[in-house]
Specification:
This protein is α+β, with helices and mostly antiparallel strands. It folds into 3 domains: 2-110, Trigger factor ribosome-binding domain (Alpha-Beta Plaits, 2-Layer Sandwich); 120-132 and 254-438, Trigger factor, domain 2; 150-246, Chitinase A, domain 3 (Roll). The chain is 46% helix and 20% strand. It is built from 12 helices and 11 strands. The chain has helices at residues 21-38, 51-82, 134-146, 252-257, 263-297, 304-323, 329-332, 336-363, 370-381, 388-396, 399-419, 431-438, and strands at 2-9, 12-19, 91-96, 103-110, 124-129, 150-153, 165-174, 177-190, 212-218, 232-246, 423-428. Strands 6, 7, 8, 9 and 10 form a 5-stranded antiparallel sheet that branches. It is extended.
Length: 449
């Protein structure tokens, strides 16, 4: 194998490789001999088929197979001999592959860049510490009570108003025909909740129990059912009763109704969860500032091939969001050109940070052990009660899904490693200051119920 260097600029490499025709012919002949031992051709015993006949019948397919394997093997040999670490799949172009002549092809690639990490001792960050107050716990338990409202029949009023829970039968029609999924009986709907399509709930305000009413609506353009997107529809409604939603008192009875032994157990669980939330917000702030520091203070060539791949993944999501009219408001206001430029820069940042963190992990032998991975999968499985075993088996049999669990674990381990060399100071703040400084709009103490 002869290798001719054609390009060596930064992380870009290009080579022209020549494989002698004798080597190619020998591989083809060897493969045809293998075929001859297995193939059955009338008039010939296995292994006795003339080479000329084998070439006539199988020469083209064998030649293509030898070409493919030779390109792969030669490229891999090039990487090993030159100690090359490709950033993405190399581009291989065939130059010449004629009978009796040498095989010539080119290999173009970008390399994983060499990274010299900036001095992390110059990274200074504040770790925000916020103690959970009694008010925090009280606010969280009140929200839990709000989420567990109880409905009771309303007897002192017969006309609906916003906020009522109404019990209705309804049938939906499009072009005077019932459509699938548009019918229900004894359906409970909270007026003003926004859980139905726009205009539906508003037309149920101010009508009396026992009334029947036709409601005309238009389905949104981004409605999930393609047959109903943007379509006009009519719903025939029968208002059967009104119920009042009452927020339960946070007491012993309420605590037991949602699975706790006592009010104290509920408050302890809520306090513990809020504390975890506060710690998470504090850590996310530290992580965000560290990633900004790493991106700004480490200079190296970022492989454009990796950026292009990352951008393509992002852009597919943007296109899907556009088609479903679910693009974020700030993105919807941007031109396609500005939007593409914006997400290109995000793609480059992601690739750059990924390379830095991976390099730190490799150089310092940081990895995720089987036990750590198993614990993470168990935590994920616990989110699906009754299906834990199925979830565990899914991850064990799906390498790509397993990597999605492993990657953030390794990222956190690298972040912790880098923090050991950084200057971290603690600062006590109120819960309000914590939310403001971390950009959190609110922090619930979500206890699963």
């Amino acid at each position: 194998m002869k290798v001719n260097d054609k390009k060596n600029e930064g992380i870009d490499r290009e080579y022209e490789i020549t494989i002698p025709s004798n080597d190619i012919d020998a591989k083809i002949t060897s493969k045809l001999n293998e075929v001859g031992k297995q193939v059955k051709i009338p008039g010939f015993r296995p292994g006795k088929v003339p080479m000329g006949l084998l070439k006539k019948r199988f020469g083209a397919s064998v030649r293509s197979e030898i070409l493919e394997t030779t390109l792969q093997e030669s490229t891999q040999k090039l990487f090993e001999e030159r100690n090359l670490k490709p950033a993405t799949q190399p581009k291989i172009d065939l130059i010449s592959f004629e009978d009796g002549n040498d095989l010539e092809f080119s290999v173009s690639l970008q390399l994983i860049p060499e990274i010299e990490l900036t001095d992390m001792s110059s990274f200074k960050v504040e770790k925000l510490i916020s103690n959970v107050s009694d008010n925090d716990v009280e606010d969280a338990t009140k929200k839990m009570a709000e989420n567990n409202k109880k409905s009771v029949p309303l007897t002192n009023r017969k006309t609906t108003k916003d906020g009522d829970l109404v019990v209705i039968d309804f049938v939906g029609f499009k072009d005077d025909k019932e459509f699938e999924g548009g019918k229900a009986e004894d359906y409970k709907l909270e007026l003003g909740s926004g859980s139905f399509i726009p205009g539906f709930e508003e037309q149920l305000v101010g009508i009396k129990v026992g009334s029947k009413k036709d409601i005309k609506v238009t389905f949104p353009d981004n409605y999930e059912n393609d047959d109903l997107k943007g379509q006009d529809a009519l719903f025939k409604i029968n208002l059967k009763s009104i119920e009042s939603l009452q927020v339960p008192k946070v007491d012993e009875e309420f605590s037991k109704s949602i699975g706790f032994e006592s009010l104290k157990d509920l408050k302890d669980a809520v306090k513990n969860q809020i504390n975890k939330d506060y710690e998470y917000l504090s850590r996310m702030k530290i992580k965000r500032e560290m990633l900004d520091f790493l991106a700004e203070n480490n200079k190296f060539d970022v492989p454009s091939s990796m950026v292009d791949e990352q951008f393509d993944l992002i852009w597919k999501n943007i296109i899907q969001a556009k088609e479903s009219n679910s693009l974020e408001e700030k993105d919807a206001k941007m031109s396609d050109e500005d939007l593409e430029k914006h997400y290109k820069s995000i793609a480059e940042r992601r690739v750059k940070l990924g390379l830095i963190l991976s390099d730190v992990g490799d150089k310092n032998n940081l990895s995720i052990g089987p036990e750590e991975l198993s614990q993470a999968i168990s935590r994920e499985a616990s989110r699906f009660p009754g299906q834990e075993q199925h979830v565990m088996e899914y991850y064990k049999s799906n390498p790509q899904a397993l990597e999605q669990v492993r990657a953030p674990l390794l990222e956190d381990k690298v972040i912790d490693f880098l923090l050991e060399s950084s200057e971290v100071t603690e600062k006590s703040v109120s819960s309000k200051e914590l939310k403001e400084l971390t950009g959190a709009t609110e922090v619930d103490g979500p206890v699963p119920v």
